Amino acid sequence: MYLEAPKKKVNKSSKEVFDFLNDVRNFETLMPENISKFEVINEDRFLFALKGMPEIVLQKKQQTPHSQLILGAASDKLPFTLTANIAELNANESEVELSFEGKFNAMMAMMVKGPITSFIGTLSDNLTKI
């Protein structure tokens, strides 16, 4: 299953956006209002839970400075990645596109598509406020 949020313009350079996302503590400010738990485990890993959903641990998987950051599930039970692609528009503005890719059976994909689409949409919208 592959989902992507609409591209969002951010009034920061690609370096500033990348540095913000590369610090996992900052993801707390991007989370939806219905977050019930957020905990930094270490500099590469954090745990979060939305009301009514199980806890999820995300960890940094891969990064290309100033242009891409890939986070992935720390558990193999729900294998997925959350990718931020960052394109610099000018010195003080960049464009960010968040995408989600997961390997789920058809039933699971049907159940999680709506909540995940909403989740990455909220993360994307909140990026414009950094």
What is the topological layout?
Elements: E1 2-4, E2 8-10, H1 14-22, H2 27-30, E3 35-42, E4 45-50, E5 56-64, E6 68-73, E7 80-90, E8 93-102, H3 106-127
Antiparallel strand pairs: 1-8, 2-8, 3-4, 4-5, 5-6, 6-7, 7-8
| CATH architecture assignment | 2-Layer Sandwich
Q: Please indicate the count of domains.
A: 1
Question: What's the tally of helices?
Answer: 3
Q: Fraction of residues in helices? A: 25-40%
The major β-sheet equals: 8 strands, antiparallel
Strand percentage, roughly?
35-45%
Mean pLDDT: 94
Number of strands: 8
- Sketch the topology as an H/E string, one letter per element: EEHHEEEEEEH
CATH superfamily: START domain
Low-confidence stretches: none
Terminal CA distance reads: 29 Å
* CATH topology descriptor: Alpha-D-Glucose-1,6-Bisphosphate, Chain A, domain 4
Structural class: alpha+beta
Describe the structure.
This protein is of the alpha+beta class. It has a single domain, classed as START domain (Alpha-D-Glucose-1,6-Bisphosphate, Chain A, domain 4, 2-Layer Sandwich). The chain is built from three helices and eight strands; from the N terminus they run E-E-H-H-E-E-E-E-E-E-H. The longest helix has 22 residues, at 106-127. The chain is globular.
Supply the key terms.
130 residues, alpha+beta, Alpha-D-Glucose-1,6-Bisphosphate, Chain A, domain 4, eight-stranded antiparallel sheet, globular, SRPBCC family protein
Summed up:
The protein has helices at residues 14-22, 27-30, 106-127; strands at residues 2-4, 8-10, 35-42, 45-50, 56-64, 68-73, 80-90, 93-102. It is α+β, with helices and mostly antiparallel strands.
